[in-house]
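Deviation from plan, reported transparently: zinc ion complex.
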Amino acid sequence: MVFRLVVTLTNKITEIRTLFQSETKSVFVSIDSINSLKTKYLGRKGIISGLFHQLRDVPSGDRSITGKELNKLKEEITDVLQSFLSQVSRTDIQQHQISEDIHLPGDYIRVGSLHPIEKTIQEVKRIFSSIGFSVIYGPEIDDEYHNFEALNLPKHHPARDMQDTFYVSKDVVLRTHTSNTQIHVMEEQEPPLRFIIPGRVYRNEAISVRSYCLFHQVEGLYVNKQVSFAELKGTLEYFVRNFFGDDVNARFRPSFFPFTEPSAEMDISCTFCRGGGCSTCKKTGWLEILGCGMVDPAVFEKVGYDPIKWKGYAFGMGIERLAMLKYRIDDIRLFFNGDVRFLRQFT
Amino acid sequence: MIVSIDWLKTFVDITVPPEELADILTNGGLETDVLPGRTTLNIELTPNRPDCTSHRGIAREIAVLTGGSLKPFSVDLQESSKELTSNFISIENDAQRECPRYAARIVRNVYISSSPSWITKRLEACGLRSINNIVDISNYVLFELGHPLHTFDLSLIEGNKIVVRTAEDGENFQTLDGEEHQLNSDHLLICDGIKPVALAGIMGGANTEVTVETTDVLIESAYFDPVTIRKGAKALNLSTEASKRFERGTDYEGLITALDRCTSLIAEFSGGEVLKGIVDVYPQKFPVNKVTLRKKEAISIIGTDFSDSFIEKTLNGLDIKFSTVNGDYICTQPSFRPDLEREIDIIEELARIYGYGKIKPDISYHGILGNNLEDEENPISQLKQFFVSQGFLEVVSNSLLNKKEAKVFTAEDIVTLQNPLSQEMAAMRPSLFAGLMKAVSYNLRRGEKDLAIFEVGNTFSKSISSLTGTAEKLELSGIICGNKSPKEWKGPVYEFDYFSMKGYMDALVLFLKAEGTQFRQIKDHQIFSSGQILLSNDGKVLAHFGVFLQSLLSIYDITTAVYGFTVNLPNVLYWLSKPLLFQYLSIYPGIARDLSFMIDDEISVGEVSKIINKIGGQILKQLTLYDLYKGDQVEKGKKSVTFNLFFQDSKRTLTDDEVDVILKTIISETSKELNAKLR
Ligand SMILES: [Zn+2]
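Because the crystal trials were delayed, the predicted structure below was used instead.
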């Protein structure tokens, strides 16, 4: 009895295979016909399912061989139906047909963009965040103390000429740099600190191709027990490589800022002429991009940090300048007049 | 400052070409360009280096930067007259603080003529016009040694004395350029026995100027307090070669050398005789400042291993006298270097002369510091990205504007500037709409009529409670106008209208996931002729929007309709900061039904949907108005509104019967409350 059942099931598999082949030979390939074949053979109550039921009655010794054969049949049927289906989707003319000329233009979709200043700030934030700098913001209108005095820029000091200032009242100014925020943060927090400050700053300068009465700045400050000028160089060179690319060189040369000592100006090799000399770099091959230095002990004294215990470095860069060099924009006023022909270029 | 390479060579050997010299100076901290002709250099001086305002000072820099040496300089002055200077002039100093030192010499029987050509050539190279031998020589010494000198016609000095005093408020004085100045007590005056003769440290007076008739010359060499000169010059908006140097701090010891040099050149080139002795009022000597330079500290701050021989060579090259004690350098601050007060100042000199380029960059990362904070503008970047994805272009506009224009946007007091660039930029923006309007107007004039733009930035108002008297608010505003899309082959052009704006606000609410947000009508018509406020479920204003008043648009020459919105960032950021939690998706099918009503035209659709929402409750998942009709097909004064309602329960399959019950209640309730008739 048992023997006969095995033979029967194996025979049945062969029988079904022949049946399926004959049925698909003459069939007109359409979605409906494929679906009915699918239900007949592979459905929950279909032929294959029925054969699997009978597998239970096959003695355990033969069950795995017969099971394998049955699975093979199921795969064959599935494959054939699948190949029919893909034929159908290629040939069935009943599908969604484009009756228009497909060379007609597509629908208008409005595409927005971030302002190049914002894009640049985001890029600067991303680079400094990657080496542990936080991001902090501060007020645009501040008292002279935070904008000047606390930064070692006393009243009646010739260094004040370096920054022409707008006054709101006798001792309230539109900040000339975001360094005012350094002071606010140091007044409120104990070191160590490491952050950048992006923001809008103002200079009382006539508007021209090269200067505007306001611009955006990112300043950085790092305060810790031991901080060196070599680290400042390392950090800013890392920034430059990330922002402008590996083929851009940086150089540092001494300069003067009242709030840093030693102070430096960082130049990069000209992005326009690759250092060969052009009108943008005034034939020098170098472009000035930021000022930096070691925090002057006088600044630490103002905020109540012990300058013997704490050291630091600070740097500041103009965002418009970076953006102009990166995107090769030749007129700073383009940033501020809202010309959509300009803005659309930054999608 | 312009310097002549030839002149520099009198103090230091220069073997490199001008371009290389400029590079050396630039890398040493003096930004230098070679001028056309290659015989002169233009040097951009930083305010901390008064010592570099002279050829000798620049020569010292060149020597120390190139490892060369500065040629010695001394003055061999012959006091040829038997007369004593002090018999002709005495100094009375009534302003000791403002003028710590005043010295003078006299040369008699001078012959005023033109200067020798080597002097005029050098002065002309530096951009100075030759006047006469006396004036030229004092200028020559100024450019040679950096100390300003002034020459008076002695015969015009009355009372045989010089009085140094501060000016009285309102006192008048005519400088030698012919200008009348009204002075105040910030100004320092040099006077004779009767009258003021010079505006100290800034400019001499017309009344005692050296002219062709002059025979006897009084030469002044003094040290004036930098702040006094700075204030005085600023008050008169007058900046001279002298004042620029005095306000940076001149050499209080070296002024005698400058005086002797000037005197000896005048004697040599004017044939005059030098009176014996110097009058020098210097009662309180400047203290000698000793600065300890610790090698270890220098190495630690710069991050470079300086050798002793380098340190010693550099200090010597900079004319800084020092001794060593236990490996530390005890330095004496030179009188010509007011910037070298502290150890850090001398460390900077070491780094500068060593060369910043040779300092090896160190890229150690010190791990996360305790204060690492999340960027509080991250959510704002998300909001910006939201508007960008809706097709908006971000603009950045000037925050300074005309006062009258500013007042259009606010009923509150505006923040104004005391010293604006122009009346067009005399106030701080009270609203971002001002800048956006200007952008609209700018673009319209260039034929760009279809606009969707936004800006994020601070707006300003007066505030009594803040220290600065002002308050800043970070806002996001946007504007749309023109067409939604350009003309397309597929069909009609849709204009941006009020409901486009409202659509963006709906999308914003979805983006924020601010549940229960309601729209309320704006009553205040400062800027919008009609508009709405978005209220969150806790009654906070998320945004307001509307269509601008034509009176406001006409200020900007705009005739088309413009729609604007402002997002109240603090209230919106609350929703963005809420943690995002997944909502279960119902596996049970829902039921959709349509309801069409006829209502009076003055009844707002909002009132109808309010009732439907209330009765629909939790299982009414979505309510959509999909048809609104007024016209021939309906009675006059009426309108037909059609809603689609979608009901679904998350725990079970709804039955038609229970949905029908709800619909019946809605119909009876709207009929009772709003006299709505089911169609
Ligand atoms: Zn170039």
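Chain A has two domains: 2-95, 116-346. We consider this an acceptable substitute for the interim report.
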